Amino acid sequence: MVAVADARAFVLGLCRSLPACEVPLEQAVGCVLAEPVAAAHPVPPFDNSAMDGYALRAADTAGAPVRLRVVGTIFAGDDGAIPVGVGEAARIMTGAPMPPGADAVCVVERTSTEGNGAVVVIEDEVVPRQNVRSAGSDLPEGAEAFGPGTVLGPAHVGVLASLGLVRVVVRARPRVAVFVTGDELVPAEVALTGGKIHDSNRPALVAQLRADGFEVVDLGTVSDEEDALVDAFGRARAYDAVVTSGGVSMGERDYVKLVLDKLAQEMRAMQVDIRPARPFAFGTLTESGTPVFALPGNPVSALVSYELFVRPALRKMAGFEVLDRPCVTAVAPAGFRRRPDGKLHLVRVVVREESPGVLTTWPSGGQDSHVLRAMAEANGLALVADGEGVPPGGTVPVLLLDAGALDAGASLRPW
Prior knowledge:
Strands 19, 22, 24, 25, 26, 28 and 29 form a seven-stranded mixed beta sheet that branches. With 415 residues, this protein is an alpha+beta fold. It has four domains: 160 residues, MoaB/Mog-like domain (Molybdenum Cofactor Biosythetic Enzyme, Chain A), CATH 3.40.980; 49 residues, Molybdopterin biosynthesis moea protein, domain 2, CATH 3.90.105.10; 86 residues, Molybdopterin biosynthesis moeA protein, domain 3, CATH 2.170.190; 89 residues, Beta-clip (Beta Barrel), CATH 2.40.340. It is built from seven helices and 29 strands.
């Protein structure tokens, strides 16, 4: 058997970051910034009011309450060209530019008016710059907004939009071709007949790839025939990566690894020291260099293999620095019994934060490699090392499939 660390190192060593490309800003969420972005102008671009109220000279509020003459009203979007002199104030709305001469804003709740609004009574003293957003207080002109390697989220997009950008240079998002093999597989809309089962691997893998932010091209189901597989890999060659499921074990009609021996370079068919997901094959297609991830056919094995090998490799190709999901240490009240077999067991589990900073975990259901519902119920994979297992009350590392299911107090670390 091949150690899981060696298998991962082999895969990651053959996967390279994709080149940079320019994309519309609205398509950049989830992508990795490829070059630094500097502020072409200050943000905000001018001093503006943080509140609805009155723009005035702070010195004029000494000894409040005081009465000031109202010289006009400034709305957001106005040019703010209403000078405010000694003993004067201007009605101002949130986001409106500060008028010349004013250095503070008194909130409207601490004012009253007289003479049909011609005079404002300022009830509290204010200090210079109170309730004023200074130009460049978010980003000064010329400052670096974000550096290369930044993973762009919605707020990043908002910042870049505030700089007037409509396109941004990012690492390309991998385009992944997916197909599965198996003459027993039929689509969900086809009625089952003798010996047939509905295909669950392809929908699950396609959904997982999309959930992780990759572009997916679904090539469907391919029959267990050499010519059909050669044709499928030929079509898949045009994409950045290929993910298949089935045909990598030791059966008579497991042709995927046999075909890849002919079509791929540096091809390795492995028996990895893990359970589930022991059979796995990887190589790169000749000429195109497209990485091929050949996953086992059992539903859970396919998804576990994806987590250990495919997802980190695709994230590397997309320019991410953090390749794996976070790992936590959790208490196993009932323990995890097992027998020594030379393998790392990845147990589908539910992790909960029972008290601040204390996580507990239990199996989410049956652990056979066809029990996909237990994978659906799980938010983690407990990494139970070879040996007798984890005693009741012992601790175990857990790879989190859904870190968002835990409270913010959970202590996360890389795997």
